[in-house]
Amino acid sequence: MSNEIIGKIKETVELAEKEIKNIKNNDELEQWRIKYLGRSGFILSFTREISSMHDDLKPLAGKEINKLKKILTGLYEEKKKEIDLSYVINELGHKKEVLIYTYPGREPDFAYFHPITIITKSMINIFKKMGFGIWTGPEIETDYYNFSALNTPENHPARDMWDTFYLDYSKGILLRTHTSPIQIRTMERFKPPFRIIAVGKCFRKDAFDSSHSPVFHQMEGLMVGFDINFAHLKGALIYFLRELFGAEIKVRFLPAYFPFTEPSAEISISCVICKGKGCSTCGGTGWLEILGAGMIHPEVFKNIARKEPSYSPDKITGFAFGMGIERIAMLKYCINDIRHFYNNDIRFLTQFRLNLGDNNEILL
Ligand code: PHE
Fold first, then answer.
1. 80-102 residue pLDDT tens
2. Does the pTM exceed 0.85?
3. Which of 53, 73, 78, 179 has the smallest number of CB atoms closer than 10 Å to its CB?
4. How far is the CA of 292 from the centre of ligand 1 (A)?
């Protein structure tokens, strides 16, 4: 009996080898697998025969069947590789020597949001929670919207604060130096009360160094109504800054000057790097200045009231604020050079994949 099964096994190996040599594709190989290794294939029928053998012979027969199984599985795997490889070589036209087909594929280059977009989205999100709407304005402005309407008439010394790119000086056409002209444009368009933020590119004839860029982004805020006061301004900005930088930060308001706000304030947060102890980022002061703000100057309201009487300064009050987005992104993400934002170095940009989080869900 045992000789008989050993003989049969030998025959099976020969037959299987002969058959598999002629196999050219996966369908044929599958038929072969079913015939030899399948549920009613050779291996299992041999295994079933063992039960009718004499006990002394069982171990030997079992061993032989296992050997057979190993040989057949080996043949199968060998052939499978050969078919797959020949498919790749013939059908996909690759050369055998350069193709290592078990290598993982190349990771596709996904597009990610730019860090400026990411921080802008989180900033917008915070103001949305406070009921602010979102508005925009043109990058090419007139000197009326950029300066005069903002209580900065020609020859006013404050015009020196923003070295301006003029597109046509004689016509007063320029690239906006800040997002504040959007204050004027929204007030001309909407009656009070309302509150909006606006984000956009601004342009100044600044040097291009680690903390300045001739093109940068600002976020402007404006809230106008019938009884808006400085406490509203403080409340909104402290909430915003704590949401963005963490509840533990301190916020400082110092008197400042802007022609279009009175009183004006310069707002700083306790240094996010050294937590207020003093370091190179905060110049040893423990504070980082990040916002300009104030109550809308009555002269600004007067300029609007000429077209839209509901803005008469004895009826209406409001606050405005403005901040540089690059500066906020630099502090939030510990970026030490503003030029990183514009160099399009893929190694820099892909670092922000992980920072997407919820921001990914909000569209501008
Ligand atoms: N526009 C000012 C600047 O660019 C910032 C600002 C906006 C200040 C609104 C007060 C109110 O520096």
1. 998 888 877 777 665 555 666 67
2. no
3. 78
4. 5
